[in-house]
Amino acid sequence: MPFAVYVLGLAVFAQGTSEFMLSGLVSGIAADLEVSIPAAGLLTSAFAVGMVIGAPLMALFSRTWPRRRALLTFLTAFVAAHVVGALTPGYEVLLATRIVGALANAGFWAVALVAAIAMVEPAARARATSVVVGGVTVACVVGVPAGALLGEHLGWRAAFWAVAVVSLPALAAIVVSVPDERRTTSGGDAPQASVAPESPSVREELRSLTGRRVLLTLLTMALVQGATFCAFSYLEPLATRVTGLGAGWVPALLALFGVGSLVGVTLSGRVADARRNTLVAAGMASLALGWIALALGAMSPVATVALVFVQGMLAFGTGSAMISQVFQLAPGAPTLAGSFATAAFNIGAAAGPWLGGLTIDAGFGFRSPVWVSAALMALALTTAAVTRLACPLPLTKATVVMKS
To answer: Mean pLDDT across the chain, nearest whole number?
Structure first.
């Protein structure tokens, strides 16, 4: 695996910390800015909306840029947004910085996914994808709990400053390690210059991405991620107000979710290239059962702790396999496939916290977002079944190998 792929994972670590850390900061933000907990939870949705809009938009905007230039531009804008967010005294400005930071993050993700798979052989694409996505899981293990601790002891603004500072080494590493032009690998880990084949036109890429099977797969991905973010965004109040754990447990639970995520992505990267469809189907079914179990057992500390780990493992293992699945189904969209997968991922990330907040506002309690997660997984399984029945894959030799 080229070293530059791991560098992309490092940059995603900083950005993933920002995306997920609000789950441990919502109460502090709500109290400091004098807004409700659901309003603070909407900051996660705002970030996801920016990712949805930004993924295809930024991919198109930077389509002709050298990859290193695009990555550096987006990461610099991301850092600037967090500096402003750390300094602002008002909720509205913080909300705006979350959207701007998400636009930059979306652009980075779209380029990073394409760059990662371009640096490896086709048989290693799922593994390269898992390395990039793994940056998010490491953020859950280290960055998010650290952000929660900073928020508890120094205030939520300290967590925003920390994200900006942690991003700086990633900027330097990209300058040193990521090729400035499109490259391939040759005979080892060192990237070698080559003349890239002519890319399809934007119209051709969009045609490849608007096939019925691809669109249904993207919808399924959005539902799976909606379920994950709905429960995860309100993990803090669930643990402290339903399970009865103290506030000091929140960083540990977030870290446990991250450890599970890291395990899931690692296993998925090793299995998905050979058995992607089986992995996705089994992961989705297990996620649905897991959210039901958490909703029923949320008052038990033992059950809650165990299921936080299991659900993190299943959610990110399944999610990373689904991202590589989009690249498999849309080979005619080498530039935009990553952006569409990122957009679908974040449509779910935007809808999930919003739906969970609605149930809390309606008076159904802090356990209700977990039931919403279970319902979203039921819809995801239904959509996947419809996709399989209505849009079967052509039975080619490659398909036979994949199914074996």
So the answer is: 83
Does the pLDDT value for residue 287 go beyond 50?
yes
Percent share of the chain, pLDDT over 90: 33
- Single out the residue of 121, 184, 113 nearest to residue 334, CA to CA: 113
Residue 140 to residue 168: CA distance in whole angstroms: 19
Q: Average pLDDT of 366-378?
A: 96
> How many helices and strands, by DSSP H and E, does the chain display?
16, 2
At 297, is the pLDDT very low, low, confident or very high (cuts 50, 70, 90)? very high
Joined together, the tokens standing for residue 399 give: 């398909």
Give me the mean pLDDT over the 121-144 stretch. 76
Q: Of all helices (H) and strands (E), which one includes residue 223?
A: helix 212-233
Per the structure block, which two tokens stand in for 391?
């849009």
CA distance 375 to 176: 46
What is the rounded CA–CA span in Å between residue 337 and residue 323?
9
Sequence-distant (≥ 6) Cβ neighbours of residue 96 within 8 angstroms:
none
What three-state secondary structure class fits 193? Answer: strand
Distance CA(242)–CA(352), nearest Å, equals 20
Compute the distance between CA of residue 395 and CA of residue 217 in angstroms, rounded to an integer: 18
Which 3 state secondary structure label does DSSP give 185? strand
Residue 169 near residue 10, CB atoms below 8 Å: yes
Nearest-angstrom CA–CA distance, 89 and 204: 46
> At residue 385, does pLDDT exceed 90?
yes
Around 368, how many Cα atoms within 13 Å sit in the side-chain half-sphere?
Answer: 15
What angle separates helix 368-390 from helix 337-361, to the nearest 10 degrees?
140
**236 φ/ψ sector (left φ>0, alpha ψ -120 to 50, else beta):** alpha
Closest Cα partner for 17 from 87, 79, 70? 79
What radius of gyration, in Å, describes the C-alpha atoms of the chain? 20
Tell me: pLDDT of 118 over 80.
no
- Identity at 1, one-letter amino acid code: M
40, 22 in Cβ contact below 8 A? yes
Q: State the virtual CA torsion across 81, 87, 29, 41 in degrees, nearest 10.
A: -20
